[in-house]
Prior knowledge:
Belongs to the trans-sulfuration enzymes family. This protein is α/β, with parallel strands linked by helices.
Amino acid sequence: MRPATQAIHAAAPERRPGAPLTPSLVAATSFHTDPDAIGFSAADLGAEAPPFYTRWGNPTVALLEQRLAALEGGEAGLAFASGMAAASGLMLHRLGAGGHLVVSDVCYAGIAEFAHDTLRRYGVGVTAVDMSDPGAVAAAMRPETRLVHVETPANPTLRLADIAALAEIAHRGGAELSVDSTMATPVATRPLELGADWVIHSLTKYACGHGDALGGAVIGRAAAIAALRQEALIHVGGAINPFAAWLILRGLETLPARMALHQHNAGEVARYLETHPRIRRVYWPGLASHPQHDLARRQMQNFSGMVSFVADGSKDLARQLARRLKVITYAVSLGKTQSLVFHIPAEDILRSSFHLEGAQAEAYRAWTGEGTFRFSVGLEDPADLIADLEQALA
Ligand SMILES: *Cc1c(COP(=O)(O)O)cnc(C)c1O
């Protein structure tokens, strides 16, 4: 099956008379159990074990996991309560005292803070590097490097990274590569097929698509996902609520269709912003002016709906946009039907989340100026979005 079909049919329950056509929401926390079928420890959980306790697994959640695995071309998936639960769970599972993480110097702020503040406290070495430069990644590898973590496109700058090149560098160094593909979605990029070991998603964003459920996922090899389930899900405990999983399954059915429209609308808006005198720079992987447009064409089958732009006097402009926009909303998050824009001041994020100094901080400022506007272009009519921007930017 191709992605648009997988999103609707992959892992669907048996077709038999009387079976419902939509996924069943199983809200139960525990299930009838055969005393001989399963032990009491997470270590006893076999691949074929029937549902037992919802933190271990749940039929509604299992359908979401299987559908995501199909979309990513992976053997197995594991759903979590949020994207942060997925990312932190994977990092806690793969890293320990004395281990070393190479992480993108620009990535989702929560993941950057978790790496710099929390993992370091547990004795993990952390090196932040520019993942658009494979040479810098190779130079950061150490004998004890266990994991290379990258985000492409990176939140909030939309800088890209070459997944196949990074997978080779990670593997040569005896490490694994995890890719946060939240902004790309499996419609644009399937990192496992490019050599990555793990794909991470915040399902809260495009996968859900409607901004009404939190969720996260990790997709990878079956044995590795089983080990991750035992430690990072069953023991750390960030299990997704089955109702959230059900909402995300519903959203996932339209993901390929929505991504086509997100891409179209983002292109219209990005091209408009490029001509606006108040806007100094626009980043969208589909624009010929994106510094890595060639990589985008090679690695992305869809350029996604995220646009970032840079303007002089950006803090004042943020206040003006928040006050004047009528269709677009000034708010955080991304990937939903409604267009959302949010301003991230460079000095704030450099200090509080990224901990970057010197040449790395300079490179960030060169890309974003005083700050970057992260614009999640929604599914409204692009003419209305452009008209709204026109009056709000005036
Ligand atoms: C939002 C986001 C996360 C965190 O996901 P939550 O579901 O909010 O916990 C991680 N990575 C990226 C790229 C994100 O945009």
